Amino acid sequence: MNGGISLRKIKPNAKKMIALAAIVAASALVYQFADVDTRHFGFAMGIRTPKLAVMLLSAFCIGCASIVFQSLINNTVVTPCLLGMNTLYVLIHTTVIFTLGPASSVVTIKPLSFGTDLVIMAIAAVSMYGWLFKKTRGNVLYILLAGTVMSTLFSSVTSTMQRVMDPNEYEVLQNALIASFHKVNSGIILFSLAAVVAVTLFLKEDLALLDVITLGKDQAINLGVDYDRTTRRLLVGVTILIGVATAMVGPISFLGLIIANLSRQLFRTFRHTYLTFGSAFIGMAVLLAGQALIEHAFSFSTNISVFINAGGGAYFLYLLLKNRGAGA
Amino acid sequence: MRAKDLRKEYSGRPAVRDISFEIPKGKVVSFIGPNGAGKSTVLGLVSRLIARDCGEIYFQGRDISRWRSRDLAKKLAILTQSNNINMKLTVRELVTFGRFPYSRSRMTDEDNRVIDEAIAYMDLTDMEDRLIDEISGGERQRAYIAMVIAQDTEYVLLDEPTNNLDIYHAAKMMKTVRRLCDELGKTVILVLHEINYASFYSDYICAFRDGQIVKFGTVSEVMTKETLSEIYRVEFEIQEINGKPLAIYY
């Protein structure tokens, strides 16, 4: 009898996951091959392939990071980007160029520069956010408030630095920073991929503990989980994933919020295998379909971030109102 | 389980001051005392949920800080009051978590058997597929107890298990506590606010005030007019009902 029940419970979610994967594959094919001029096939592929790779990778990063982060602080209306993690990355990158100068090899060798950013980011974010969570004792309203202020602070410091910068430095910085879906930062795809794979493998065991972590700190410790160590390691992972995504496509605040919550609504489970992969797949589908629309239907007249942030903002308000009293 | 010179401070204010005690095995021990007396803190300290500032806690001959957390999870289970879950979780899935220290996420046939038994023991078989945020408070409390049973530990620590329960469910919960001890042979330590539950359902009572133990002894030793008045600072009368002391306070 129990076997029947658990089968009935698991099957729909597995089906949904397969359907999602199929949608992602279809969107990828449409994006890659829609309207290709066969005379310039190689040329078109050369432009589209890196973009496709970047979108898939960044959707994976943002999707996973958002779900993990939400489960860590036990609230579903918060994502790392809303708390300024992507502006922190921009700040760190700016600071590195500002202090070392544009000719330094740490800046010119892309993977090295990227690696440096990620390491600093991991240290800074873990100490800052770890402290924030401890101080606010997980009160989500305080976290959200402090996160918004931090986000503004990081961007102000960044723009101050950019203003007093040497124009040459600024040029170098801009080239690296204005990454968007039109102009993806394709020089770091391989390195990013390596970083993502490394993080995933490194945190494999900790990710398996996420289901237990969502029971709350007391229950997790009761069940023998080293709570502090696990959450710290997972926070490092989240930071690196967000850093990778921001470096590749620039800051998009609301994507994580949308896809993480859609995944939670779609799968209605506590099992993080479903939630994280669901969130990543939904992210891929949203980005690919959106970008295909923008390139072919709107012929580049607008930017996908505009849609994501407009839609995401509205969705965020809806979630806040819906969860009023319950979540916060 | 034995504690020696245990101390814990919160921002300079001592919550637990140098207390020592020994918990007798296979008995029900209730911690009573007014708010802020340190009962819950002591429970948190001995279950490693709260880090102590000073002192020693010996569990089966070894200090609990020297136990691997995962091994300790097979010997000692604690249920606190902070159980708000934002997840879609069925009763059965919650109880399944009790087996986590043994099998991580891969349940064996043995695990499933233990889970079935725990659910049946708490009369939850009919509702094992209900979501825990859609059942009543009493049912949810039973689901958590079932999880603790599935964890299959010698020691069970409960922080105010009757909190937020009506009289019917609270009395039922206390009977369950008794059964955990009498039928399953567990040592149960619980924090209680209702002193008559402590009197009727436990073997020993440990009375706290201001972070210190005022008295630790059998029920009849602690349930006296003098001791209770000293702890709670209100007038008490003690009556015998069915051979157990019943406290009347006003």
- The dominant shape of chain A is globular
Radius of gyration of chain A: 20 Å
Shape of chain B: globular
Structure annotation, total helices of chain B? 10
- Order of SSEs of chain A: HHHHHHHHHHHHHHH
Low-confidence stretches of chain A: 1-7
Largest sheet of chain B: 6 strands, mixed
Order of helices and strands of chain B: EEEHEEHEHHHHEHEHEEHHEE
Give a description of the structure.
The complex is a heterodimer of chains A (328) and B (250). By secondary structure, chain A is mainly α. Chain A is 78% helix and 0% strand. Chain A has helices at residues 2-33, 41-72, 85-100, 105-108, 110-136, 140-164, 167-177, 189-202, 204-208, 210-213, 217-222, 227-249, 255-267, 272-296, 304-322. In chain A, helix 2 (41-72) packs across helix 13, helix 3 crosses helix 12 and helix 8 (189-202) packs antiparallel against helix 12 (227-249). The two termini of chain A are 39 Å apart. Chain B is α/β, with parallel strands linked by helices. Helices cover 34% and strands 28% of the residues of chain B. Chain B has helices at residues 39-46, 69-72, 91-97, 100-103, 109-121, 137-151, 167-182, 195-201, 219-222, 225-232; strands at 2-10, 13-22, 28-32, 54-59, 62-63, 76-79, 155-159, 187-191, 204-209, 212-218, 236-241, 244-249. In chain B, the strands form three sheets. A six-stranded mixed beta sheet of chain B has the order 6-7-8-3-9-10, sandwiched between helices. Chain B has a four-stranded antiparallel beta sheet with strand order 2-1-4-5, with helices on one face. A two-stranded antiparallel sheet of chain B has the order 11-12. In chain B, helix 3 runs parallel beside helix 6 (137-151) and helix 5 packs antiparallel against helix 6 (137-151). The longest helix of chain B has 16 residues, at 167-182. At the A-B interface, helix 1 and helix 11 of A face helix 2, strand 6 and helix 3 of B.
